[in-house]
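User: Here's a structure from my thesis project, written as structure tokens. My advisor, Dr. K., wants to see whether a designed sequence matches the one we expressed. Can you design one independently, without my sequence as a hint?
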């Protein structure tokens, strides 16, 4: 029986429940870049541990300027936070929407945060029939003026589906007319192919009903650092968010790491290349299996549907955990069922191992 759920990458629970030493776990559930933390970041932290004795710059100006260089968004339109999660919470609190729509299935924190602030929440389904690709016409029919916020994860976790910059612009124009804000969580955007144009940062300067949140946990393999940022050109909303934010929520080491990581072009290029090549390999090899269906992904994970009624995602989890392999049983996501699982892309060797195991099962 699968016991791990809610969020992937919960290695402490796996260690406790399955008695597997942490370093032996092959974690296909956490969506973390297999290249690990950039060496440039490790070196900078090693050299500067004494900085822990001082407070970080409360304005995080140099960090925000390095994010400006990386994203193309003016640093005055950027704030940093303790992972994407703090910023999701902060902006939802600042906006305090009465009525929200979440494009779903999606990361569970959006719904939790919205409900905590008292928003009524409607889930707009991405459907299996449409390969989890958003049906824009259906969505805009739902958007009337009493909706305050639409939440989109792009590329979406757990489906891997995505909207392009042009589709987002269409949605934003529609929302602008109705006074609706769009929140995009781009935690996985760096894993997408450049030619797909998933990155919506170029829209920030033109739309004051948009805010984009990103974290560094996945692409820069640093969930333990807790560093994220939000871009928004709506000064009123940004100032309100800043006024509600705890000071120094990005610690000195995360601040330092951020200043270095966004400039590490070698790491960024290598990561994109490895993920794109391995994603192609997974799709090519797994498409040959008749008992599963794969969904196209522009992220570092792939959603898979089991077509054999005798096998559930929980069964697959149980089989693989015996080899210290952890995948994400995706059955707890809205609109998915007990036959959906998600796995992320790791090193070529680990991916080959998972491929072999999946071929044996299916
Ligand atoms: C879509 C999405 N957003 C945000 C997060 C959390 O990011 P962070 O570690 O930056 O808080 C996750 C973690 O799984 C995620 O999948």
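Assistant: Designed independently from the structure alone:
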């Amino acid at each position: 029986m699968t016991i791990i759920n809610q969020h992937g990458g919960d290695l402490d629970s796996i260690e406790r429940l399955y008695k597997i030493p942490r370093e032996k776990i092959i974690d296909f559930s956490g969506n973390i870049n297999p290249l690990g933390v950039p060496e440039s970041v490790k070196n900078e932290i090693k050299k500067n541990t004494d900085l822990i004795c001082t407070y970080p710059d409360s304005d995080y100006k140099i960090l925000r300027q390095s994010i400006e260089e990386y994203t193309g968004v003016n640093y005055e339109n950027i704030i940093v936070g303790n992972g994407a999660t703090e910023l999701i919470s902060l902006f939802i609190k600042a906006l305090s929407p009465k009525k929200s729509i979440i494009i779903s299935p999606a990361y569970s924190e959006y719904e939790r945060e919205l409900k905590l602030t008292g928003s009524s929440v409607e889930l707009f389904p991405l459907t299996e029939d449409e390969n989890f690709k958003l049906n824009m016409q259906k969505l805009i029919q739902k958007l009337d003026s009493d909706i305050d916020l639409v939440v989109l994860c792009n590329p979406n976790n757990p489906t891997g589906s995505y909207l392009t910059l042009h589709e987002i612009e269409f949605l934003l124009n529609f929302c602008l007319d109705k006074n609706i804000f769009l929140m995009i969580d781009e935690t996985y955007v760096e894993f997408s192919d450049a030619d797909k144009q998933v990155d919506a940062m170029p829209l920030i300067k033109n739309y004051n009903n948009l805010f984009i949140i990103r974290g560094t946990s996945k692409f820069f393999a640093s969930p333990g650092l807790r560093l994220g940022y939000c871009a928004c050109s709506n000064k009123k909303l940004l100032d309100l968010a800043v006024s509600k934010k705890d000071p120094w929520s990005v610690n000195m080491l995360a601040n330092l790491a951020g200043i270095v990581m966004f400039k590490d072009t070698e790491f960024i290029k290598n990561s994109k290349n490895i993920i794109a090549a391995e994603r192609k390999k997974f799709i090519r090899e797994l498409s040959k299996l008749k008992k599963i269906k794969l969904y196209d992904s522009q992220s570092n994970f792939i959603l898979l549907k089991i077509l054999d009624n005798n096998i559930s995602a929980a069964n697959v989890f149980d089989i693989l955990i015996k080899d210290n392999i952890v995948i994400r049983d995706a059955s707890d996501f809205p609109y998915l069922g007990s036959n959906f699982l998600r796995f992320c892309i790791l090193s070529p060797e680990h991916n080959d191992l998972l491929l072999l195991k999946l071929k044996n099962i299916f």
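When you compare it with your expressed construct, this may help: The pocket of pyridoxal-5'-phosphate is lined by residues 7, 83-85, 107, 153, 157, 185, 187, 215, 217, 223, 228 (CB under 6 Å).
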